[in-house]
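At this stage, I put together a protein sequence along with its fold in token form, as given directly below:
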Amino acid sequence: MHGYERLLCLLDQTVGAQKKLLELEHRKTSIITHGTVQEMDEVLLLEQSLIMKVAGLEERREAMQKEMGLAGMTLREIVNQYDSENASGFTDRLHALSSVLLELQKTNRLNMSILKSRLSVLNRLMVITGMKEPVLTYEKMEQTHKAHVSLI
């Protein structure tokens, strides 16, 4: 198999692995809102193995690029360097990878936002029930100070 074909095949594998990570991220969204800790543990184990797979694919890609004399080049630079026949395959993979990674970022941000909100509610409930002392932060102190100023 020609070097470019091997690289394209590796990029296909990377896109596939990233799509699986995206599916897991969507499952995490559902679990965060409606699931259990056990379900989250299962997804996190799957996610960990996929992340390791993606890291391995990335290492293989870098080694392959070095072997092909393309060390240190980005995929976009490779696309710009090669003829339209090879560039077309790279462009398709690059677009697919970029799309998946962008969606993965968005979903990850959503999950983080939901988690922060849930943790905030939990923290407030623990303070209200006396299970935890309120934590004073600079932000809260500033808000308290502003409240006193507005009352004067």
Observations:
- The mean pLDDT is 85.
- The chain has one domain: 3-151.
- The helical segments are 3-34, 37-67, 75-81, 84-128, 138-151.
- Residues 3-151 form a domain with the Methane Monooxygenase Hydroxylase; Chain G, domain 1 fold (CATH 1.20.58).
